[in-house]
Amino acid sequence: MKHLTRAVAVAAALALAAAACNANDKSASGGSTAAAEQGGTWHVLTTSKEVNLDPAKSQNLGISTIHLVLRGLTSWKTEEGKGAQLVPDLATDTGQVSDGGKTWTYKLKPGLKYPDGSPIVAADIKYGIERSFAPELSGGLGYHKSLLVGGDKYTGPYKGGDLASVQTPDDTTLVFKLNKPFGDWPWIVSMPAFAPVPKKADTDPAHYGEKPVASGPYQVKSLAPGSKLELERNPGWDKSTDQARTGLPDSIVFEMGLQPDVVNQRLIADAGDDKFAATTGTSVPAALIPTVTGNPAVKARVATSSSGALQYLAMNTKRPALSNPEVRKAIQFAVDKQAVQVAEGGPEFGGELATTLITPGIDGFNKFDLFPAPPQGDPEKAKQMLAAAGVSNLTLTIVADNSTATGLPVAQAIQQGLKRAGITVKLLPGLDSESLTDLITGNKPDFDLTVSNWLPDFPSALGNIQPLFASSEIGNGGYNISRYSNPAVDSAIAAATAESDLGKAAGMWSAVDKQIMQDSPVVPLIYARNAFLHGSKVQNFYLSAYPPYPNQLIVGLSK
Amino acid sequence: MSSSVAAAVSPTRQALRRARKDRSARLGAVLVVLLVLVAAAAPLLVKLSGQDPYTYHLDLLDPARGNAPKGALGGVSSDHWFGVEPLTGRDLFSIVVLGLRTSLTIAIVVTLVTSVVGTLIGISAAYFGGWYDAVASRVFDFLFGFPQLVFMIALGIIVPAGFPRWLLLILVLSVFGWASLARLIRNQARSLVAREFVEAARSVGSSGWHVITRELLPNLLGPVLVIATLAIPGYIGAEAALSFLGVGVPPPTPSLGRSISDSIAWVYTGADPWFLFFPGVALFVAVLGFTLLGDGVRDAFDVRLRRTT
């Protein structure tokens, strides 16, 4: 599950920026008009210092880096303007369900090979799943860990033997036994932990991710930790078996540890190899918007998503001042969503104002607004509601992340919005992402308000709702930050989770969304867009409503 | 000027007379008086402008230009004398004058604290000597060799969020600031301790406190004044630097350093260079004023370094 810190930080790099300003004017042609061709080297510019290719430790979405090297049982297919679809990957279909939704069976396609020509067998996928349970390899997406029978006690293949609920009757068959019906299981098996790991190659588990055995179109050629990762073609990959990947570029180079400014300025300049470069995670900051919008050639090279993570104001419902739902409803009207939107870059780059918990692009999204107000809020109405609730001189603390570019500005936007309704908000900064996460997800939640971003790990309303509002997710690192607990909602979540008819489930989720908003544990702020730049020769680079990241599996280059 | 007249005037008065003749020192003094007045009257000035540094004015921003201020010079108007901040529309004049007030207050308080502490420790180390002097001198050396900025940033991150930031800034800058003054004063005082008038005072049985306050301190006031005046711009800069790096006073309390930090992206993209201009000029004038004044005071007191003109 993904708690997002929007990586749009701006650092001081004056000299470099001055050079890049001049280069702006020169970038003449742009736009994604030419066709992608086979070949070339795609450069990915990233601010992160590590690209993690260990399937047990990866949190990558189905369209992200690790899936260039590794395949799962299923995979994501995207189309511009549409949500992600699930397609079979190593398996022949997206899964056969039996036993009332508790048993899922998969058959592997014939002729699947590793780079050395040896066959990919079901036991390797079973071993990959077992590895993800090992405590020393924690940190990856772990939905399967609580769903597979015996998963709660299993400690991985190094100490715990084998996991009986993953069965491999033969080399091409996998059977999963779940402890409860789970309709979204086909999405779960697209996750990194379901990639094949040959047991004999796992001699040094801690460093397996530096050169994993490839099943996708690419394999690791070289890795310079912290600075550069080079991928080359995997001779064992056969395009005819793969619906999700195009494998167009001959090689892919990740340039790591760059400053966000450097990434954006290089892509705006579009010079030399940077014509073949793109960012997959560094958004365009507000100050660059005039530069981008003022130059059509640059603007054509910005890919924006129509939606994305939900940015919301969480209200700690366990605090005396906020335990009264009427107070929380008054805050819905007091908040200045427009100021938040401006701080995030305006409607075009920041995102549209949000009123629901399920985000656009996900089945179950059904636009409604229980607290209709103008974009800047309705402080007068909030005042009346507070007076009716018998509350005066409300003073609250807001905790904010000071390590991101928009953490403090957004908190200040909330602060000034509530001030208009007579609510005093004290801003407690001095928290970086990690200490903030510890505070808001831990067991000593000493705060009233905080702004958070949430993006589901797979396109299901389950991922929008359950982690943030199920009472089982309060404290102990869970993301029910508002500490919202409602038995009726808990059972509605359980019912929608078990529903294997996904169309029916969507309707149930939509009802849960409304049910939660009636209790007002959070204020939805915006559906946060992403806006990423790419070079003029990079094709098939677009962002969907979900996932709001480029599909790296289909990017190609033009000559 | 005849020697009899000169003899009738105290060294401090001589120094002030010299400082008055120094044109750059006069300019510095004027700037400092002006800055202190502005800082002292900042809340009044802000009220006079009819604005405050917290209210958002989104209507004054241009969404087509990334929400930079509408209009020329960063949105300068009769309502907003220095224009408004991009992305929020907060009044930049209020932010600048209140930020100046924060900077000056912190710098002056830190200077007072470090001057008093540094002078006392420096003089006492020189007077008492022995192991006390040895320990004090090692502490000076230690604080000199310490990577101060890195430590301050680290401290700014680990200190609990509830601790008032302005107090933390004052404490941190003071803890690292007093050593340089103390070392200079100690060395000056050591040469005084050996002089006849101190020996004489000691021989008639004066207490240590009496010797330090009555005999040593008056002779060291000049250097203390020089070092203190020259230290103020340093502290203004240090406060701005820490705010720039995000460990200064928390938003939305105005701070010049933070405004300058926020403005950088708006400058190099050319979207709103005025966002840097006003806070930048305020910081520049503050540092310049105190530096000119400090130079003048130093020239006036320190005869050997005085310019020959």
UniProtKB/TrEMBL annotation, chain A:
Record field: compositional bias (Basic and acidic residues): 200-210
Keyword list, A-Z: Signal
GO biological processes: peptide transport
Signal peptide: 1-23
Residue span, Solute-binding protein family domain: 85-475
One example GO MF annotation: peptide transmembrane transporter activity
Region described as Disordered: 200-219
InterPro entries membership: Peptide/Ni-bd (IPR030678), SBP_5 (IPR039424), SBP_5_dom (IPR000914)
Source lineage: Bacteria, Bacillati, Actinomycetota, Actinomycetes, Propionibacteriales
UniProt GO cellular component terms: ATP-binding cassette (ABC) transporter complex; periplasmic space
Record's protein name: ABC transporter substrate-binding protein
Transmembrane segments: none
